[in-house]
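At this stage, I put together one protein's amino acid sequence and its backbone structure tokens, which the following lines show:
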Amino acid sequence: MTLDEALPAEREQDLRSRVFFVDEAINDFSLSVGDEGINEVTLMTGTPVDESELGRKLRRLVEGQLRDMRTVPAGQVWRSSHPAHPRPDVFEDLVESGAVAELGEGQFCLDQSFLTLMDYLDGRLREIVRRRLHGREYRYPTLLSVDTLRRAGYLSSFPQFLMFVTRLHGDVDTYSAFLNEERGSADGVRDPLRFCDNSDYCLPPTMCFHTYHQWSGKAVPSMVVTARGKSFRFESRYRRSLERLWDFTIREVVFLGDRDHVLSCRETLMNTVFELLTELGMAGTCELANDLFFSDSETSPQTISQRMLALKYELRLPVAPDRTVAAGSFNFHERLFTDSFDIRHVDGIPAYTGCAGFGLERLAYAFLCQHGVTPKGWPPPVREHHERARV
């Protein structure tokens, strides 16, 4: 499909990260990049499609979301002193050994050895939060109300990632009709949503929204909250090994309070995490970034302001010679969530929030890509923890 006007070459990654969300029929694509930029997109589908309709959707993405995006220079705040030499075929080795097993799209079963590594890394992060930031830990439920995500602005910024939860309509006629269809056909119920009548809850895309809900309408002191929990994002065909999952685990840290407190906590956490990664012999960088907004005229400025105001830093770790993964992020929200959730400071001054999140599967996977799957080659503290866990 030839674009009406070439898309600037600097928009290539933005386009690549969105193409699979154009239509579920797309199972592969390629871009033609010339001197003037990206002038042609080739879409491969697994089933016959209306090409004109698919072209309309692609042009809607390009013209409505990417054409007017401004390019903001990147900024790097940390680079590890360790060289990057990620090992090839680590994921294949994990699958072959049985340490990892795919159970569904973007869903993996992890064995004790991998979980022990995840728990070690998470424990070090948790220790930093509790000792250096005096954080208070909570355990949140999995389900999150749709209203909470709406108040947070997530529904209008990231609709492509949403995963809703529903249930059968609560009456005996519905249950009977459902049972009759399930038992009366070899294929069972073909369209279960016909029997459902609830979409008030969703699977949480990250853990921090539970914290804003928890303190909604309250006056809070300056404090730090941390939690570990499962998070869920629909990643379409962007799912890849343990780098990008639909179902993953996050260690979340939320900073609440006055502006100086929030920014100071974020900086302390960043620097201490950099020290931890250096201790563990891991290569990586931390740089300015922006979220993958489903951009339009309203959300495009958010992408720009995130970089211009240094609201988001991303921790990127090498997992292949030509690829890194975002294993964590450090964010400053200004008053976005305190205003949305009516969170006030006990001292009568404006309240701010920030957060940091670490994908534990990604972090452990990056560690294995850099140090290998055999504990003998791991740094002593990690190897010793692994040996103790085996006893």
